[in-house]
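Structure first, sequence second, as always.
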């Protein structure tokens, strides 16, 4: 995908990632530590994490196309692209956590609920993955903003 209505696709798609990653991260942390939220939101979290995972490589590919249109990229733009390439790993991790939360939810509805240690482990992993994913999006976005509007580079 190169452009949407004449606008570079990356410029539009990146906004979806900037919304989805913190939203999924927050919901996963909430579902990890609050069982009532997990009962109500877990399937929405799985769906949002899946959409995020699909959009991530589309967004990075659109960014790669955009970089190739401008000739020799400045160092900050290269840094932005390199950071952006790491986002797929965080998107996969967000989906894995969402699936783990869904498994917990299903197990909780059965007669033999999961052990407390499993619930705590999933909550801690949700916190770690959520925070690190948001930090990564901020770092990628900062490099992108510096490339477009900043002084670096």
């Amino acid at each position: 995908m190169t452009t949407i209505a004449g606008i570079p696709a990356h410029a539009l798609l990146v906004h979806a990632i900037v919304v989805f990653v913190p939203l999924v991260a927050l919901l996963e942390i909430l579902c990890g530590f609050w069982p009532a939220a997990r009962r109500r939101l877990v399937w929405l979290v799985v769906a949002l994490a899946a959409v995020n995972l699909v959009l991530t490589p589309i967004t990075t590919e659109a960014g790669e196309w955009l970089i190739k249109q401008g000739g020799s990229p400045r160092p900050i733009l290269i840094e932005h692209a390199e950071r952006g390439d790491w986002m797929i790993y965080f998107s996969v991790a967000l989906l894995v956590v969402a699936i783990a939360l869904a498994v917990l939810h299903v197990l909780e509805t059965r007669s033999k609920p999961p052990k407390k240690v499993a619930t705590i482990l999933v909550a801690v992993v949700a916190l770690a993955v959520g925070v690190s994913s948001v930090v990564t999006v901020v770092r990628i976005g900062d490099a992108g903003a510096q490339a477009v509007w900043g002084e670096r580079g």
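Margin note: The two ends are 27 Å apart (CA to CA).
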